[in-house]
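Final report, Chapter 2: Outcomes

The project's central promise was a pipeline that accepts a single protein chain and returns its three-dimensional structure in a standardized token representation, suitable for archiving and comparison. That pipeline is now operational. To close this chapter, we reproduce one record exactly as it appears in the project archive, with the input sequence first and the structure output second.
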Amino acid sequence: MPDQPSAFPASSTTSSPPSAPPSPPYDALPRVLGVRQGVVISLSNISPTFSIGIGLGLIGASVGLGIPAAFLLGLVPILGIALAYTKLNQREPNCGAAYAWVGRAVGPLPGYLIGWVTVVTQVLFLAYAVPLAGQYTLLSLDSLGLRQVAGVRLAEAPVLVSLAIGLLLLAGLAALAVLGVEAAARFQLVLLVLEFAVVLAVCVWAVVAGDAASFSLGWFSPTVFSSPSVMAMGILLAVFMYWGWESAFSVTEENTDARTSGRAGMWSLAAVAGLFLFASVAFQRALTPEELAANGERGLPYLGQLAAGNVGQAVTTVVLLFSIIACVQSVLIGTARQTLAMGRDGVLGSGWAALHPRRRTPHLSTLRIAALAAVLALLSAGLGSLQDIVVGSVTSVGILISLFYAFAALACAITFAAEARRSAAMLLITVVTPLLCGLALLGLGSYMIYSLWTSSDHFAFAADNGRFLTLVPVVILITGVPAALWAKYGRRAAYFTRP
């Protein structure tokens, strides 16, 4: 990428706010990544092992034997959005991705809100994942035979102990991300190989030895669902388990080839879809719907125990920890690139766009994101109301994801509208397919709002209250508006003053 202070030139019209003072030129990120590293970063963000470990039970409780069909149908709109990302990235490789593309095609306010939502939800996710990583560290040690330390049973350790361990892991992962994205990708590759090996081994056993249900091709058909509402809920849950594939585009400016991000995104979706489908068949072969529902939050360790006793339970618990660790680091990398892009455009301070003088990584962005997540995690441990907000944002993030993807689809249609008029194939690829998939995801997001709101008959400030869960993403989105106004009129960001 050329060294530009902003992705958008400042407007010269008198009706626009005065442009910001000239920003210092920003160094380009080193181009060191290939498709393999992009796939690794993307898969780490999706975190398929953890999604399988706790997510299949949740879907199974809703759709019975329709888990494979839910994943297959959920993949369709995601592929359409991935196609839109690929085309947009070919036109403008930018580590800000949808934030940059929506800002250019739809308008700077929607674009800024995309960036705002991305950063806020990712920081909240990290605040949620930090104590979770600590908890699974203790559970892993307990399952491996280290039951207690200093008289404290590890499986029942206080929350502050889990949090302290999680913060240490976060610090180490942030340091590795600052050292270099190549080193981080190599580390994540090791974790992914171990995860996939264990998950595939357990699933192969389940397919061969399972006797809860006989395999049926009907599991992949929409007719397996008992009603349209059951199908909609299954697709809704499955769609958002694919979330994270777009992190391949957050490192697009560090790729050796402009086509790398598109290839990495598609390959990661193919890999995770295959794993989800195989795992769902395996779980349905070995576990009844009732067992799936009863063991939803520990589905993989439960299946591991059935396959190989305590050893199987221990190994599957350890790979769940690996999955959380890899996901945390991938989220750190992606969010730091998002804030880097926003810093270059002037909507954040220039420090967010600074690169380490030797490592050429966005070190300040990485450390600031980690620090924000650490502070939130510490505060939420002592403030139950903040903990509810953190958990609620993670639970209901699907509402924001559907909006996020829909705007990316709209940006693709607008960007390529002129070219699409001259080619039927271009019209189908860059306009019709993204718009249809974006509308489908908006529909799913709307259904999620309806389901959450009607699941409770009153409002309560609690992470299990449906109306609270509906309002959390709305508040996240609305708070981005004053932040955008400050960036436009206070910072006079060039992002808002394009022609």
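Archive annotation: The CA atoms of residues 37 and 185 lie 6 Å apart.
This record, like all others produced under the grant, will remain available to the consortium after the project formally closes.
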